[in-house]
Design brief:
Strand order of the largest sheet: 1-9-8-5-4-2-3
Distance between the termini: 29 Å
Strand content: 5-15%
CATH superfamily of the largest domain: Type I PLP-dependent aspartate aminotransferase-like (Major domain)
CATH architecture of the largest domain: 3-Layer(aba) Sandwich
Bound molecules: pyridoxal-5'-phosphate
Number of helices: 12
């Protein structure tokens, strides 16, 4: 008998999401309506913020947040070099320029000392990315932002349920952005959310996301805006997902702890852990080994799907024009930790539906490989 392949991610869905989506359709209200209002209310309570608006996905949530902060042509935004490409392309979408800084070699979170060095007269904002289920050091980020008069836009796409000093991430800067893509801790298929505390920013978010007007029925548009709305079908799915969130988080943590226990004495294998002051809602279980490519191949033959650690942004082919414009900012020597992380890191699955037996199977496969080195 062959074992079914273990995928990298699987959303935690059951009949309840299907029923909630169907109910929305039967109720004949599929654009933003009662379910969206309730989903937003519960998200604000969870993230501990007064305001939040939806966006179609995490990338557009970041772009919307940047626009609401007034980021535009000529403005630089500091972005960690190890993150999903959407963190940087959202800055381009808003008209600004992403400026990359390395991450810490131990934690893979933004290196705020490197951010300090990257500040210029054009820097307007810093985008801390809460990566792989840990918060980044928001005390250091906030101090840096205060020193240089920068806005803070948190990329909390992977950060629902993550806290720093006991406070939820995504509510610690000027705006916070979440993604509800299928591989995130809470999913609505596609979806995004932008939080803020300042009523003036909230007002700009509302105008920007709804065609520059406050009332849907009017064809008079006082401001330039776009359509960043979602549907109540997604919100209804999100409301069910929120009821599961505590158990999703607990199961992910248990799986990660099981891996960590199993790998505790494996020579040359490190498990990425949260920073001091952060709880942990593992997005993936990132392991670091000099033999990452070989381990990836070994696990593939065992029917276990891995994922690479994010490719360094400064090397991305899509940013060639930025590189040609300012080659000094794209020098490999500035990014040893994100380069090293991409070469030596790989992601093991931690989705809640993994059984204990499957977790053991994955851990056995990793340890078999390490024992042969
Ligand atoms: C998923 C993700 C995004 C983008 O979210 P989408 O909903 O896929 O557009 C941005 N940043 C990080 C760190 C992410 O993990």
């Amino acid at each position: 008998m062959t074992r079914p392949r273990i995928p990298q991610v699987r959303p935690t869905l059951d009949g309840r999401e299907a029923e909630a989506a169907a109910r929305t359709i039967r109720d004949n209200w599929i654009t933003e309506g009662p379910a969206s209002r309730e989903f937003a209310r519960q998200l604000n309570a969870l993230i501990d913020v007064p305001y939040g608006v939806f966006a179609p996905n995490g990338t557009l949530a970041l772009a919307l947040g940047l626009m609401a902060l007034g980021i535009g042509p000529g403005d630089e935004v500091i972005v960690p070099n190890m993150t999903f490409v959407g963190s940087a392309t959202s800055v381009l979408l808003a008209g600004g320029t992403p400026v990359f800084v390395d991450v810490d070699g131990e934690t893979f979170q933004i290196d705020v000392t490197a951010a300090e060095r990257a500040v210029t007269v054009r820097t307007r904002a810093i985008m801390p990315v809460h990566l792989y289920g840990s918060a980044c050091d928001m005390r250091a980020v906030s101090a840096c932002a205060a020193r240089h008069g920068l806005k803070i836009i948190e990329d909390a796409a992977q950060g629902i349920g993550v806290t720093f000093d006991g406070r939820p991430v995504g509510g610690l800067g000027d705006v916070g952005c979440f993604s509800f893509f299928a591989d995130k801790t809470l999913t609505t298929g596609e979806g995004g959310y932008v939080t803020c505390r300042d009523p003036a920013i909230h007002d700009r978010l509302l105008l920007l996301r709804n065609q520059g007007r406050r009332d849907r029925g009017s064809f008079v548009h006082p401001a330039i805006g776009y359509n960043f709305r979602i549907t109540d079908v997604q919100a209804a799915i999100g409301l069910i997902q929120l009821t599961k969130l505590p158990s999703i988080i607990e199961r992910k943590q248990r799986i990660w702890q099981a891996y960590r226990r199993r790998f505790a004495s494996a020579a040359g294998l490190r498990v990425l852990a949260p920073i001091a002051g952060s709880n942990y809602v593992p997005f993936r279980c990132v392991v670091i080994t000099e033999h990452a490519p070989e381990l990836t191949r070994h696990l593939e033959t065992c029917g276990i799907e891995t994922r690479a650690v994010f490719y360094p942004l400064h090397r991305q082919p899509c940013f060639e024009a930025l590189r040609d414009h300012e080659p000094a900012r794209f020098d490999d020597r500035q990014y040893p930790n994100s380069i090293g992380g991409a070469e030596q890191g790989l992601c093991l699955p931690v989705y809640p539906d993994l059984s204990d037996e499957e977790v053991d199977y994955v851990a056995d496969a990793v340890l078999d490989f390490i024992a042969q080195q």
